Tetratricopeptide repeat protein
Amino acid sequence: MQEETKRLAGVLIGIHRRQRLKEDPAGGWTQDQFILDEAGEAICSRMTLYKLEQGQGIQDEERLELLLRKLGETPLKQPEQVSLRKERIQRLKQAYEQFDQKALGELLTDIEALPPTTQVITMELQLCLSLIIEHLAFPDTQPHKPLYIRYREFDAKLKNQIFMYLDLAQVLDEDLYVMMIVLFWQININQWTDRKLSETLLERLEQCEPHDGIWLHRKGTFLSALNRKAEALDCFNQVLSGSFPLSDAVRTLTEIMRFRIWKQFDPDDAFRRSGSFEQTLAALPEELTSQGWMELGLCLCEGGEEKGTERIDRALAQAPYLALYYLPHLFHCPLDPVRILSLAQIYLDRWTTPGTLAIYRYYEAKQAGEAPGLLQQCILKEILPEIEDTVYRPQELIPLLHDELLTLVQQSGSYKGLADFEQITKRRKPALIREIWING
């Protein structure tokens, strides 16, 4: 067994042993218990195990084998001489940073076609690669409801495993580690909105090197999601004003995110009326994905730009399902609401969750001229209890619904519903963050 393989095996032992200890505190997974064999004899000293788990390796392969067998059904049962498959990691890194959907899909196909293996490092590496690609390879297709439901139901278990996966990726490869941090941040911001977890993931990202353009872009995205807008804007400004080599995809995404944040610091919209803004628009690539066009259109509409509707229309022409996926946002734009509802209705049965249906019915009733009091009750009694079970991110939906309520209470004169809404949601208003992709 090569020295590097032994070192990695030791670190992986530590990762899995600590995870098992967390899941089963009385199961004999402390260091003092783990070093004992079936007869109660010490396989090695506690200090040797400590050093092994810290990556210092061990010369006695027989003792290492005995320690590995202690983990039973884990993938560490039969460690063998393996490589880290740097080529696959580099392929993933390049495709990920270029937002190259085709390359990601091809890599996923290659990984799924690999023959079964008992080689520990290969198995762990393939697990990390598949986790990343599974969630990033197909962003411009209709949202995958089974995957969405799986993550709603799988929350607790996956949350408990997150730091094991991160520690594992950190051992295997630094680039892989960074991608895993971003992956779990995306899952958290999409599904769980756990602020403490987001802050922890940001701390891990800040410890990574190098601090280049893509690193600044990621940090800005994390900060924006944590509502630290000024810091996020500083990161995005550094990305765009620096001499970093960036793909058109990253530069476009950074520009659009900066637009959305800038609006909050520029109530007079001076930036949008400036020549700099027009130059920025002119510099954007001609080919965005449907979601990219949608995000850019929303950004422009929020600033009062009529040309934003052209981008939204282009997005809907490419992917009509976005009418449902962005329904609450689109009702804040100068668009034909009847057309938007008609498009959304076509795809409604694909996301038949109570929350999604309640939101659709609310905007349908609003368009039909329902009384303000009844619309308030729809938000409070039908949408709010189901707000976590929709195709919309709660942290984006809450401020939109709050704005709806503000308008309704002014019309009805009843402010009680607004107070109830704010008490329940604690008026949290995180960033509007979504991934935007460029056609590969």
